[in-house]
């Protein structure tokens, strides 16, 4: 037997009823087994349990600061000036 304690939109899983705090035992849902899988256990509208696997957010590349953009512009300008001077030799 597996004991599920509702917690917001998911569950805390207990393998033994005596591990569930006394005050919360009235809210426990008893199930014979859990579905195969891993992730976060949830229940759909029909009452069936399933594993939800959240997809990680893609990393957000930091935007360059104003100083970094100004520095890159200066480097590019200096490079162009040097290249122009070299072509005049």
Written overview of the protein:
By secondary structure, the protein is α+β, with helices and mostly antiparallel strands. It has a domain at 2-52. 25% of the residues lie in helices and 25% in strands. The chain is built from 1 helix and 5 strands, in the order E-E-E-E-E-H. The protein has one helix at residues 66-87; strands at residues 2-7, 10-14, 29-31, 40-43, 49-52. It has a 3-stranded antiparallel β-sheet, with no helix packed on it. A hairpin with a 5-residue loop joins strand 4 and strand 5. The protein starts with a strand and ends with a helix.
For the residues shown, what is the average pLDDT?
A: 91
**Strands side by side in the biggest sheet:** 2-1-3
Identify the overall geometry: rod-shaped
> For the terminal residues, how far apart are their CA atoms?
86 Å
Q: Ranges with pLDDT <50 over ≥5 residues?
A: none
Percentage of residues in helical conformation: 10-25%
Strand proportion, as a percent range, falls in: 15-25%
Q: Count of DSSP E strands?
A: 5
Q: What is the chain-wise order of helices and strands? A: EEEEEH
The biggest beta sheet reads:
3 strands, antiparallel
Name the assembly state: single chain
Q: State the secondary-structure class.
A: alpha+beta
What would you report as the Rg, rounded to the nearest angstrom?
29 Å
Q: Helical element count? A: 1
């Amino acid at each position: 037997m597996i004991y599920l304690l509702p917690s917001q939109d998911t569950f805390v899983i207990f393998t033994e009823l005596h591990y569930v705090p006394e005050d919360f035992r009235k809210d426990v849902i008893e199930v014979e087994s859990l579905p195969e899988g891993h992730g976060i256990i949830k229940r759909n509208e029909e009452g069936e349990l399933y594993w939800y696997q959240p997809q990680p957010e893609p990393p957000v590349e930091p935007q360059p600061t104003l100083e970094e953009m100004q520095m890159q512009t200066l480097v590019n300008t200096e490079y162009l000036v040097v290249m122009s001077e070299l072509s005049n030799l």
